[in-house]
Structure formats: C-alpha cells, structure tokens
Design brief:
The chain has a domain at 18-67. The protein has 79 residues and is of the alpha+beta class. It starts with a strand and ends with a helix. Helix 1 (23-30) crosses helix 2 (34-43). 35% of the residues lie in helices and 18% in strands. Residues 1-14 have a biased composition (Basic and acidic residues).
Length: 79
Amino acid sequence: MAHSKKYPDGRHSSPGDPSLVSLQEGAQTVGVCVKTLRNWISEGRLTGYRLGPRAIRIDRNELFALARPLADSHTRGVA
C-alpha cells in the first residue's frame, strides 16, 4: 500500500483516513487553546470524535484545512 500508515495492531490507513489527535495535541499544533477547539466543534467548524465516555479526538487534516492564507500584502497594503 503506497502512502499508508501502519498501526500497532497491523491495520493500514489510506491517505483519506482521518489522522485523529487529542484536543491537547491539536491545540498545541496550531497554537490555540483547547477551549477554542471545543468551541469550533460546538459551532460545527470542526468534527469531534468521541472515543469512550470522555476522550475526544479531532482529525488533524481537518484542523489544518481550517487555516486560511492572509491576504497578499502587495494587494491589500498590509505592512
């Protein structure tokens, strides 16, 4: 399988499979608070996945997809 990830239990993921991370890891990765990620889940901007009674995970790729480039400084006059 090209470009797949092998899990400890022997499963393989394909490029389209979600890469689930904890809220703490996701928040640290993009530099926001865990509460911000919880708000984004509540607002429907980000999908949360419950893994048991308390554990919530998010798709790392979906988190990065929320990022938007800033306007080009040459066209907007931003210094």
